[in-house]
Amino acid sequence: MKSSTLFSHTATLPPTQGLYAAHPSAPQMDDDVVIRLDGLTKKFDDLVAVDGVDLEIPRGEIFGLLGPNGAGKTTIIRMLGGLSLPTSGGATVLGLDIVKETSEVKSRIGVVPQNNVLDRDINVRQNLSYHAKLHGIPAGDIESKIDEVLTFTELTAKRDAKIDELSGGMKRRLVVAKAMMHSPEVLILDEPTTGLDPQSRRLVWDKVMSLRDTGITIILTTHYMDEADALCDHIGIIDHGKVIALGTPEELKAKLGHEILLIAQLKVEARDRVRESLEGKPFAYDVTVEGNKLQFRTDDKKAAATHLLAHYADDVETLQFREPTLEDVFIEMTGRELRE
Amino acid sequence: MSSSHRIWAIVEKEMYVYFKYFHSEVSFAVLFPVFMIWTMGIGLGEATIDWLPEGISYVAFIMPGLIMMTVISTGFFNTGFVMMFEKEYSDAFDGLIQTPVTTEEIALAKIVAGTVKSLINGLISMVVVLVFVDLTVTSSWILLPVLFAACGFFFSCIGLAMGTWLKRGYQLGTLGNLLIFPLTFFGGLFFAVSELPENLQVVVNANPVTWMITAMREVVLYGSWDVGLEMLGILLICIPLYLGAWRLFRKLVVN
Lengths: 340, 255
Ligand SMILES: Nc1ncnc2c1ncn2[C@@H]1O[C@H](COP(=O)(O)OP(=O)(O)O)[C@@H](O)[C@H]1O
Ligand SMILES: [Mg+2]
Prior knowledge:
By secondary structure, chain A is an alpha/beta fold.
């Protein structure tokens, strides 16, 4: 396990500069960067799945790759884990080249892929011990390590269960347990909570956060913006194989200029009238209407609300302010919604 | 951590699964020779065939080839199907290749496991045949495990390559039948090569399965030790087969 000093060191990094600047010239201390992508590219015939991604992921934090389905998240993870070869560019993990030093990389990272990589011919304990043997863990240490990871993932009662007897959430946790067997310095989770019920999802979140607190660097992909927001110290938003934004959740949301969304439900017949009245007003941007709903961004809550209530009190049915979310950031940058 | 430990871990797991489903694994090794002995026995009875060597019945004559077919089929189908199912129908294979184990180690372990299974199935068939057919066991029978292992390795290489390359079970099934039946039938399973016209003998003698069946006959029917040439031929061909299987495996597995 890494010492927690590394973690606190990361936490004091200045926002956005340095580590996150994707300039090759930016001076970097290798010790602080766990994963470095350098023009990483993957093509499948004509399709560019990952398009020249430059990225640096610091030690000791939870880094999220957020993007819609098909953005290229899994392809990046597979290349980092040595399961797929880059078409061009490259990457290092813990300073090791992902192509030339694949075995060494694999022995020092844990990967929880999107699919449940479990062997159904053998039971829970055997899956873990098989994995441990392939990682060269000394025979005498395997059983105690199995106990440890099963306790951590709350699967002790399922130690001798068949894989087919596990629920979806348990299988997911077992894959996490498997990835933890060889005490990796970096844990990569590809869509760890997709398809899980809210309770299992919360459990995975808790586990991920407690792992980060032990000093392990965690990289996860997700297409849930709330998950990225809740878990990640830094986020890379990825779309069409390119990282289009990078920063802390707060920094990303701040790109919307500390604005707030105002959502008003109106009488339908008043809708267009109200919209027209907002034209040219300094406190309203990006006015959109949908059904009886009118929405705009504002950095002056008071002026916006006063305008609506002073002139259209009879037409406004409800009025609501909302903080911008990562979803809004994504829409702002791509013109599309995150979910398909 | 060493390469041999990882190879052993994979072989051990493969054998565990083999013995877990032993009842189904073993049924082919038992039922195939029983069925052949039974039908051949009924069909041919004590019919005399003039080219048969002194004191050897036709049923006894075809037994070495039948046992060899068990070995060959196990090598090809077991190695091939295990590989294909792991890769196409389960996620276990991704779990395997995400560990530090290399493609060389996986390929070798899968082929070694296929070889051991072929050896076991061959020995089971041998015992079954001995129950029903009167054969004289001689000291040269000690060669049989070596022969089974060599032939099992040979076809495990082909099985691994095909199981990696093909994506569907029926493709592997069809290809295996298209490969194994002609090779064994033209490998002198039912006839003596020396009875063929000379130009055909050249073709049949170029078939490695002919060497396998010939070597089996030498040992099982005549108690001979004189199978060095056949063994050498089989082992020499195993080298390019293994290298080819591994390279195809490496190319298809990580891309
Ligand atoms: N093996 C493959 N062959 C062809 N296309 C692929 C393959 N794997 C992924 N893709 C394509 O690459 C793109 C990125 O996929 P992926 O990395 O799985 O996205 P994500 O994980 O972000 O949903 C998609 O358009 C997908 O269809
Ligand atoms: Mg994905």
